[in-house]
Each structure stands twice: as structure tokens, then as C-alpha cells.
Amino acid sequence: MSEPNVARVRLPEKREADASLGPLYDRADAVSDGSTLPGPTLFGNQVRALAHNPALLKALFSVYEAFAAQPSIDRKLTELGILVVSRVNACRYCVQHHAPLAHGAGLTTAQLQAVQNDAWSDRTLWSEDEWLVVRYAEALAAVPQRVDDQLFAALKVRFSERQIVDLTMRLALCAAWNKFNDALGLDTETAFQHAFAELGLA
């Protein structure tokens, strides 16, 4: 297991935080049904960091509730895009969280290993939809102003405009989390460190 990060801000525990945040703390630390992993929407150390601003934490929670209420795109594709963005941005926190979640959503170990090795350009690993998500996530994370018209036209053949908007926002939020996590030195929670290690990714 890699050396732990040292958070640059205090991470208040539930008893120290605003009382109205209790349910969000509980959700962040809850164990999902049939899983040893904390719930996929909110993660403990992010919640604790954001507890310094309760209104912001609640607002962000509402954004993810909106995604969950009416999902438009397969979770496997979303998790794949998140992983590619997080690898481009070298965010260990998000990679260690989302690799187990992506595996649970249907990505194979070989696909996860390719992403972990920054070798996602092997077209044979991906379905048509997966390949488009890989290319879009990489372009969006690298230089979003250079997402070319040809790639966007290909996306519109396979996905509705609603799906493209949802995917774009989800990946853009992921990039923001990458920067948030790394700037504040947030470490991956123990459950996800173990789940990531169990995948055996190099």
C-alpha cells in the first residue's frame, strides 16, 4: 500500500460538525448492501473536508442526488470516464475509489489494468461506446477546448444530447474533485485502499 497522504486541513468528525450534516456523515460512512465498500456517492474524507462549509457540502450532495434520481447513462461508462480523467490528472484518491466501483459495474480486470497503465489507447479492449467514452474523457481532462468536432459528432451518433450533457458534467466534476483532493492532501479511506489492492492492479 502506498504512503498515506497527510491532510492539509482538519477533517472534523461527526461530533464536531454542524448537527445538520449528521445524515451526510452517516451516508458517507455507510456500508452498501452486499458490499464491503462505503457508499459510492459520498466519501468520508471529502465529506469531512467539506464540512467546513455545510451549505456547500449540502449543495454538492444535491447535485449527486440529481444524477442518481434519473440516470441517463450506464454506470459502467460513467465509471470508465471517471477513471480515465483521474489517471490523466494523477489523482490517487479517485483512482483508488473508482477502480473497485468500475469493476463492480462491469469493467474487466484487463480494462482496469490498461487504465492503470495509461494504456487505454488499445482499441481492442473496448466496445464502441466504451471507446468513445475513453477518448472523450481523455480529451476533456487534457484540454477541454480541444474536444474536436469529429469526436463530438461520433458521440452524438451513439448518445443522446441528455446523455452527453450528463456525462460531460460528471467528468468535469471529477476533474474538480481530482484537484480538490490533491490540493488538500486527502487520503483514500481504508476500505477503498483494501478494495483497490484486492484488484491486483500494478
What would you note in describing this structure?
Helix 4 runs antiparallel to helix 5, helix 4 (75-88) packs across helix 9 and helix 7 packs antiparallel against helix 8 (149-158). Residues 32-41 have low confidence and may be disordered. The chain has 2 domains: 14-69, no CATH class; 75-198, AhpD-like, CATH 1.20.1290.10. Helix content is 62%, strand content 0%. It is mainly alpha-helical and 202 residues long. The chain is globular and about 50 Å long.
Q: Which stretches of 5+ consecutive residues score pLDDT under 50? A: 32-41
Helix content percent band: 55-70%
Q: How do the SSEs run, as a string of H and E?
A: HHHHHHHHHH
The geometry reads as globular
According to CATH, what is the class of the largest domain?
Mainly Alpha
Distance between the termini: 11 Å
Tally of individual helices: 10
Structural class label: mainly alpha
> In terms of quaternary structure, what is this?
single chain
Q: What is the count of β-strands?
A: 0
How much strand content do the residues show?
A: under 5%
Please state the second-level CATH architecture of the largest domain.
Answer: Up-down Bundle
Rg to the nearest angstrom? 17 Å
**Average of the residue pLDDT scores:** 90
Going by CATH, what is the homologous superfamily of the largest domain? AhpD-like
Topology-level CATH name of the largest domain: AhpD-like
Let me know the largest β-sheet: none
What is the domain total for the residues? 2
